[in-house]
Structure prediction request, 297 residues.
Amino acid sequence: MRKTVRTAIFPVAGMGTRFLPATKATPKELLPVIDTPLIQYAIDEAQAAGIERMVFVSHPSKSAIERHVMDDAKLRADLRARGKRDLADELQEAALCPEADDAVFTMQHEPLGLGHAVLCAREQALPGPVAVILPDDLILGKGCLGEMIEAYAASQAGHMVATMTVPREEETKKYGILSVTEARGRLLRADGMVEKPDPEAAPSREAVVGRYILGESIFESLATQEPGAGGEIQLTDAIARGAQREGLAGFRFSGTRFDCGSKAGMLQATLHLAAQDPELAPVLEEHAAMCVAPRAA
Ligand code: UTP
Prediction:
């Protein structure tokens, strides 16, 4: 079995309805946590994990993502002409070049589901297993994808999903839940997963979050996958279908995950990073003190 993960797929074609009206003109993946857009955190994580090719599955209405991600030589030249050399260098450092960085954009013309978005990347993926990163799942700490790639190479699994343990009563019904057959430290063996089960039906408390390493067969599974929940081609359905044949593993990542597709998660991520920032931490403290101080009569 070929185990080298060379491609990362970034599905960024969704409508981002939970963040309307902010996402009417600005793609969700460009919403910033403090000063860094979500997509940038995801790219940094993939680069740190040694990914060779990045495939962005976008939508024609979200061209701002491409403008953010790719190098903009004119903007850099303009900044330099205005004496802002450092800023120009910083932008160049963060941006991708199509050749040097092997970054590709492809379009999903209709948001037919996450599984369909991954299938749209099929022709662009390099041989071997692929990584999928959902940029609205922000994972801080040790790079989650890097940890997973290491664990994947040592595992027997064809598909691997990132998991975190959630409280049964309140949370299992919000996630895909892994059917765990064996737990060995961070690595879980599984024989399937169930989408958003009621607490009593949940096969475990291991919730699947937005990092995946998928064997090449995923593309064939997706191509023949019937629409599932919401009439969409669901990635979890295709992974679950191939679980027996391919072998499925969960990986309990070490970092902290924020659901930045929701307002609450975005706020938590912002507060978390602000608390660690020497410039912003005092602002946070001052604000918190103001909130608890009794109002003047
Ligand atoms: P989400 O379901 O969180 O994103 O998909 P969404 O549909 O854009 O958001 P809401 O629920 O309406 O607020 C997770 C990731 O998958 C992408 C999204 O862009 C996001 O990065 N996605 C989702 C696609 O690329 N295509 C799709 O058809 C659906």
About this structure: Residues 11-18, 28-29, 57, 108, 111-114, 116-117, 134-136, 261 surround uridine 5'-triphosphate (CB under 6 Å). The longest strand covers residues 176-184.
